[in-house]
Amino acid sequence: MARTMHRLSAASLRGKPAGKYADGNGLWLYKRHDDGAQWVLRYTIFSRRHEMGLGRFPDVSLKEAREEAEKWRAVVRQGKDAIKERERERREAERNMHLLADVALDAFESRKAELKGDGKAGRWYSPLELHVLPKLGRMPVSQIDQRDIRDTLAPIWHTKADTARKAMNRLGICMRHAAALGLDVDLQATEKAKALLGQQRHNAQNIPALPWKEVPEFYRSLSGGTITELALKLLILTAVRSYPLRHIRLDQIEGDVWTIPAEAMKGRVGATKDFRVPLSQEAQNVIAAAKPFARDGYLFPGVRKGVISDATMGKFMDRRGMKERPHGFRSSFRDWLAETTNAPHDVAEMCLGHVTGGSVERAYRRTDFLEQRRALLEQWSSNVVELSATDAKVVGILAHSASDS
């Protein structure tokens, strides 16, 4: 065997003319007329001869070629086809070298249809983009473990607890997405990281809300007739969330009913039913005042494009020196319902677009309590604009009778 091995020497390789040169035991150097050269391993398995490329010379040295050849000879001795085994290993390596940044983007794209506005607001992706991908984005997802996740989220685990929770949740989704792609990942990595990080100390704070008795005074102050003020007025009168309010379109309004598409309602992902909002007379007046500002079908357009932002309404309240947030008016309305009306729980929750009861109960309960909600929102409107006592009493009687029915 010694006489048939290592026939070539590193010093003589470069000067050899075009041709095929055996180093022994199946290792050959093929030299071309253009001075290019390739290492080749010849082997026989299952009665068939194969030639396996081992790299270019001089990129792969004689020593390296010999080591590589011996590696694959050992594979052949195990009864495996070296070329097929190398392809299998290459595919396995590629399968497990997907970077987290690529997997996260793919996971986001696959879920866009489930997200409000196809995820254009970026709220699903932003916790990953801001707090996870800068540190872990360039790592192969198969190599990420609980210690990596712990070290990444530890700086915000207690100080920005809600953001950290969302980032951990999104990362878990990405890991499951990677597993669905066939990648070798630790699906328990996020749960293990939570155990390492410990219980979060931060307590979530409720969004500051204006007491319902102070809402009429604030409503009266919205007298400038600007888009922001009109949007805040309609937000108060309808008690809807900011997103559907800001994206309200003229073609969603028919008479005294505003129909919000199902996909624009939080917590109604995949729902097939739209949500109807009864419009009080005051709400209709606000819509009429806002129509001259409409652009591209949107009732509350932004300054340059799109629609008014949530931050715009928040900053308006900031300038008033208020700590309360626009979303808090939903809480103001709910407190008013609880303290001044005898509206049934299901009707009160439906006013806010909340889903109540189990899936079976909801399957049998087909009503959306539109008429009961119409009376309650009319009474709320009366409270907000402070109608005369007589008028308010009449509307109140109607609301109570509707909620009792």
TrEMBL record:
<comment type="similarity">
    <text>Belongs to the 'phage' integrase family.</text>
</comment>
<keyword id="KW-0233">DNA recombination</keyword>
<feature type="coiled-coil region">
    <location>
        <begin position="62"/>
        <end position="103"/>
    </location>
</feature>
<dbReference type="GO" id="GO:0015074">
    <property type="term" value="P:DNA integration"/>
</dbReference>
<keyword id="KW-0175">Coiled coil</keyword>
<dbReference type="GO" id="GO:0003677">
    <property type="term" value="F:DNA binding"/>
</dbReference>
<dbReference type="InterPro" id="IPR050808">
    <property type="entry name" value="Phage_Integrase"/>
</dbReference>
<dbReference type="Pfam" id="PF22022">
    <property type="entry name" value="Phage_int_M"/>
</dbReference>
<protein>
    <submittedName>
        <fullName>Integrase</fullName>
    </submittedName>
</protein>
<dbReference type="InterPro" id="IPR011010">
    <property type="entry name" value="DNA_brk_join_enz"/>
</dbReference>
<keyword id="KW-0229">DNA integration</keyword>
<dbReference type="Pfam" id="PF00589">
    <property type="entry name" value="Phage_integrase"/>
</dbReference>
<keyword id="KW-0238">DNA-binding</keyword>
<dbReference type="InterPro" id="IPR025166">
    <property type="entry name" value="Integrase_DNA_bind_dom"/>
</dbReference>
<dbReference type="InterPro" id="IPR002104">
    <property type="entry name" value="Integrase_catalytic"/>
</dbReference>
<dbReference type="InterPro" id="IPR038488">
    <property type="entry name" value="Integrase_DNA-bd_sf"/>
</dbReference>
<dbReference type="InterPro" id="IPR010998">
    <property type="entry name" value="Integrase_recombinase_N"/>
</dbReference>
<feature type="domain" description="Tyr recombinase">
    <location>
        <begin position="205"/>
        <end position="377"/>
    </location>
</feature>
<dbReference type="Pfam" id="PF13356">
    <property type="entry name" value="Arm-DNA-bind_3"/>
</dbReference>
<dbReference type="GO" id="GO:0006310">
    <property type="term" value="P:DNA recombination"/>
</dbReference>
<dbReference type="InterPro" id="IPR013762">
    <property type="entry name" value="Integrase-like_cat_sf"/>
</dbReference>
<dbReference type="InterPro" id="IPR053876">
    <property type="entry name" value="Phage_int_M"/>
</dbReference>
